[in-house]
Design a protein that fits this description.
Blueprint lengths: L3 E3 L6 E5 L8 H6 L17 E7 L5 E7 L3 E6 L4 E7 L4 E6 L7 E5 L3 E6 L2 E7 L4 E7 L4 E6 L3 E6 L4 E7 L6 E6 L6 E5 L4 E5 L4 E6 L3 E2 L7 E2 L6 E6 L5 E6 L3 E6 L7 E4 L8 E5 L10 E5 L4 E5 L5 E5 L5 E6 L5 E6 L5 E4 L12 H11 L9 E5 H6 L11 E4 L2 E5 H11 L3 H19 L13 H18 L28 H6 L3 H35 L4 H29 L3 H16 L1
Antiparallel strand pairs: 1-2, 2-31, 3-4, 4-5, 5-6, 7-8, 8-9, 9-10, 11-12, 12-13, 13-14, 15-16, 16-17, 17-18, 19-20, 21-22, 22-23, 23-24, 25-26, 26-27, 27-28, 29-30, 30-31, 32-34, 33-34
């Protein structure tokens, strides 16, 4: 498993699951589900999109709703997989988990129905007069509060099993949000008119009215009332005093319910309605405390509740529908318009959950050993390459999978088609590899070279040869005559250059040309033979160590090199035969050339 990492505002955000986390197409991931069984994001998805996602009170399950077809799915933390799915007749708007686990839940559907689900399945279904928008459950009285597109808040008592008198608000258009304070059970209703009404459940009467005021400028003390504003989301803080209000203009206002003025106004700067607001103060560590998590359809922002300073943000590729924060951890679930439910891990907010403790190890390994994802057993080809291979007739079949501007094809089929189109490609490739290997070995071979002076090179060469012969015979250390200071100018001053073509030199050294030629020929012959043997041995060792199946090609090339060297040496000897006037040297050269050709 490889996690994608982003660093907005120098805070690392790891994408555990969501759109773009996989480097392979969805159809290939579904085919290889067995190999992805250790992936926490396995099956954490819907066929089209997810609408709402929530965790149970016992922190063992997560429940999500989505489409298409409309359904509810339950995922178990211990198995990191889906426990079951349950289909419904209509799309879900919101749901509430009544029990500590997944066994009891209430679903508000978009066809004005309310479904009660138990462990065995659908338990009961009823309808409301208007289209519902939000749900809230009051545990002390067992009242289910249903906000709808009217001024009434429908009350359905689950203990008595009947509707009670509705709560009549002053909203002219409808109520968008209904919440209950966890500390003192105060009801809060956000209306489409842009007001927030507070009701006491004991007297069922309104105890307060809040009209959010957006400042014309964040730096100005003057504020104005925006007439078209709507309340789209609200959240009470656990201490019972804090209230976060999200508006349709993309602003979040933080209130103390004892005051009618917000102590902080945060602008998302996108202009989209706020869909979710969460108070985040349960994480371990100073960095995770005092934060607010707010989200519109484009971005989820995490910021400080006191100063409004930006902490970090997450911007998924698909529109956001809902946000769920896993308690006491840095893991956040995001329901979105993509197939996979987004899961983002932020170590700066808190540790990984107990059921997903290995996330910390994965993040550490990702920092130490980054890996790249590749397409295994598949080759990506464009339409033009497919036509060149003669496989364009396979378009539309199961052998090709359309992806972006081309297709994925099985690697074995691609190699077979390429071999049929060019059957000699592999042979040419082998020959090219052999040649490159031989040239590389030759270039790395250590050669002993003797530096000869510019003046009297032939004389210096003869002197060095004589010293080497004496060394071989007497086994005594040889002395380099070129380094003798007494004869230094002989090899540096051009005035001392010996003219070997002069008549005097030939009279003094009548046998020197013949010996020099014969010795040069012997040296050339021995050198060519030694080079052939060395190249054969080196080539055999290098190629046999790399590829044992290329011995036949190596032998062929080495034989060609031998024949070429033999021909070159024989041609040199023939040229010397033409230039030589000595009959005895003619016989020797003929014998040597005949011996080389026979070999």
């Amino acid at each position: 498993m490889v996690l994608q990492v982003t660093n907005p505002n120098n805070v690392k955000v790891y994408t555990v699951s969501g759109s773009g986390t996989r480097s392979i197409p969805d159809w290939l991931a579904r085919r290889n589900k067995k190999t992805l069984k250790n992936d926490p994001g396995l099956d954490f998805e819907f066929p089209e999109a997810s609408i709402k996602v929530k965790t149970t009170a016992d922190n063992k399950f997560v429940i999500a709703t989505g489409v298409y077809k409309p359904q509810m799915r339950v995922f178990e933390y211990a198995e990191t997989s889906m426990k079951f799915d349950r289909h419904t007749n209509a799309e879900n708007i919101n749901f509430i988990i009544l029990s500590d686990d997944w066994t009891k839940s209430v679903l508000l559907q978009n066809d004005r129905t309310i479904e009660f689900h138990a462990q065995g399945g659908l338990h009961y279904k009823t309808r409301i007069p208007k289209f519902g928008r939000d749900l809230a459950y009051h545990y002390p009285t067992c009242d289910l509060l249903i906000a709808a597109s009217s001024s009434e808040i429908y009350r359905l008592n689950l203990d008595q099993g009947r509707f009670l008198n509705s709560i009549m608000t002053d909203a002219a258009k409808g109520v968008n949000v209904s919440i209950i304070n966890p500390a003192h059970q105060l009801f809060g209703f956000g209306t489409e008119d842009g007001t927030v009404e507070f009701w006491d459940p004991r007297s069922r009467s309104r105890v307060g009215l809040l009209t959010p005021r957006l400042p014309s400028s964040l730096d100005s003390e003057n504020s104005i009332i925006t007439p078209d504003i709507q309340i789209t989301s609200m959240k009470f803080r656990d201490d019972g005093l804090g209230l976060a209000v999200g508006t349709s203009s993309g602003h979040i206002l933080l209130y103390d319910i004892r005051s009618s003025s917000p102590w902080l106004v945060k602008d998302h700067q996108y202009g989209y309605p706020i869909k979710s607001v969460h108070w985040y103060n349960n994480a371990v560590g100073d960095k995770g405390r005092g934060k607010v998590i707010s989200a519109d359809c484009k971005i989820m922002k995490i910021w400080d509740r006191e100063s409004g300073a930006h902490f970090t943000s997450v911007e998924p590729p698909n529109d956001i529908n809902d946000v769920c924060v896993v308690p006491d951890s840095g893991l956040i679930f995001v329901a979105n318009e993509g197939i996979q439910i987004g899961a983002y891990y932020i170590p700066a907010l808190g540790p990984a959950p107990r059921w997903c403790y290995f996330l910390d190890n994965l993040t550490e390994e990702l920092e130490e050993n980054p890996q790249e994802n590749i397409y295994e057993n598949y080759k990506f080809v464009t339409r033009k390459e497919l036509a060149n291979l003669g496989l364009d007739h396979l378009i539309g079949t199961n052998l090709l999978k359309a992806y972006m501007h081309g297709f994925f094809i099985d690697l074995r089929l691609y190699e077979k088609a390429k071999l049929i189109m060019n059957p000699f490609a592999y042979a040419e490739y082998r020959q090219r590899v052999i040649k490159e290997k031989i040239e590389k070995e030759r270039a790395s071979r250590i050669r002993v070279t003797k530096k000869l002076p510019k003046v009297n090179k032939e004389l210096a060469s003869r002197l060095l040869e004589d010293e080497e012969k004496k060394k071989r015979k007497s086994n005594e250390p040889s002395v380099n005559p070129l380094k003798d200071n007494r004869f230094g100018e002989l090899f540096t001053n051009p005035d001392y250059q010996v003219d070997e073509n002069s008549r005097e030199f030939k009279l003094l050294h009548p046998s020197l040309p013949k010996k020099r030629k014969s010795s040069d020929e012997d040296d050339n012959y021995e050198k060519s033979e030694s080079e052939n043997n060395e190249s054969n041995n080196d080539d055999d060792d290098s190629i046999s160590s790399s590829r044992s199946d290329l011995d036949s090609d190596e032998d062929l090339i080495t034989q060609l090199d031998k024949l070429r060297r033999a021909k070159s040496s024989s041609s040199k000897l023939k040229d010397e035969l033409i230039r030589s006037s000595n009959t005895q040297s003619k016989k020797q050269i003929n014998n040597k050339s005949r011996r080389i050709e026979i070999r």
